[in-house]
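Memo to structure team: turn this sequence into structure tokens by end of day. - J.P.
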Amino acid sequence: GAFIISSAFSIVQFSEEPMIQQNKISFTVVENEMCRQVDVCENEYRNLMVLLKDKFYPDYFGECGGQGRCATCAVRVEGNPELAMHDNDSNEKNTLNKSGNTGKNTRLSCRILISPLLQNTIIHIDDTLF
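Reply from structure team:
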């Protein structure tokens, strides 16, 4: 790396690696009939459940901490059929089935990564799902 000596005589090292451009991902969250736009960078949160808990504070949401066991983080996904599918995650399907959430577009938000698949989607937090 390159070194620059500042006027305070401290040595600062600069990385020669290029800055990684992170694209913003924008989607809408609907909770209690209120819509809110969310702008986030890819992988800024571990998964959608963590983001929703951080930004929306839904009661009784994600009680198992993202292990895919309780279905309290269930959401309904609109706008991207690929995201609405379960990616052959039998644990997610079983958890949703046990909780009675058999809707075609219902997912566990702990199983949805913060990725471009979320772009322009609508995520419904509906307490009737959990």
